[in-house]
Every structure is written in structure tokens, then in C-alpha cells.
Design brief:
It is built from 3 helices and 6 strands. The protein has about 120 residues and is α+β, with helices and mostly antiparallel strands. The protein starts with 14 loop residues before the first strand and ends with a helix. It has a 4-stranded antiparallel beta sheet. It is elongated and about 45 Å long.
């Protein structure tokens, strides 16, 4: 994170948090992944979205075994924003049922967790 100011040695220890979370999503194409990432960050629903891919996903859909190339998105946000983030993903996504899975952050560098909070909408 080149835009962050240097972190003092007192902030180098991990801090517990109950508000920060990581949200996993998949997209059908690189273009869709980019659209989702840009929308979520520009609308301050996520502080950062990493795009990873291509990946291959194997799953059962409507009783049939499927295997598709997808792009994984990993968003850092607040738990309180997950409902709004999910609604926005659903509105922008090409899938009938897009993946949106939120996992809690149990610990992290305090300065980074503060940055997530400062970079996202207020609850």
C-alpha cells in the first residue's frame, strides 16, 4: 500500500476486530470482475478489491456438474456494509445467483484495519 504513511513500531502488533471482513465473490469474465471491483471501491462499499484469475470452478448447478473459468474477487470491507455490497453485486452481476461470502477478520495490523474503516462508507 504505497499511499499509506509509514506505520510506527507500536502499530506493528495485530489488533482484534469485529467490524472488518473479507468478502469472496466470483465473476464470469475479467471485464465483469473489473466492473464489480471498480463499482465497489468507488462507491466505498469496499476499501480494496483484489482480482485473481483466471481460476477454474467446479460445482453442481441445476443438477448438472459444471466447470467454468471465473475470476475471484476478494474485497476488504466492514461487516455492516455486506448487505449493501451484496445488493450491488447482485445488481451488476451476470449470474442469477452470484457468490458473495463474507468471512470475519479476526486480527490484523491496526493501521490497515483503520484504513479499511476510513475508506468505506459510514454505517
Amino acid at each position: 500500500m504505497s499511499q499509506l504513511s509509514p506505520v510506527s513500531s507500536t502499530a506493528d502488533t495485530l489488533a482484534d476486530t469485529s467490524e472488518a471482513c473479507v468478502v469472496y465473490m466470483t465473476a464470469s469474465s475479467e471485464a465483469e470482475a473489473q466492473t464489480l471491483a471498480q463499482a465497489l471501491v468507488s462507491e466505498r462499499l469496499a476499501a480494496c478489491v483484489n482480482r485473481v484469475g483466471p481460476i477454474v470452478s467446479t460445482y453442481v448447478w441445476e443438477g448438472e456438474l459444471q466447470q467454468d473459468t471465473e475470476y475471484l474477487l476478494i474485497a476488504k470491507t466492514r461487516r455492516s456494509l455486506v448487505p449493501m455490497l451484496s445488493k450491488r453485486v447482485k445488481a451488476l452481476h451476470s449470474y442469477d445467483l452470484p457468490e458473495v461470502i463474507a468471512l470475519p477478520v479476526v486480527a490484523g495490523l491496526p493501521a490497515y484495519l483503520d484504513w479499511i474503516s476510513q475508506s468505506t462508507q459510514e454505517s
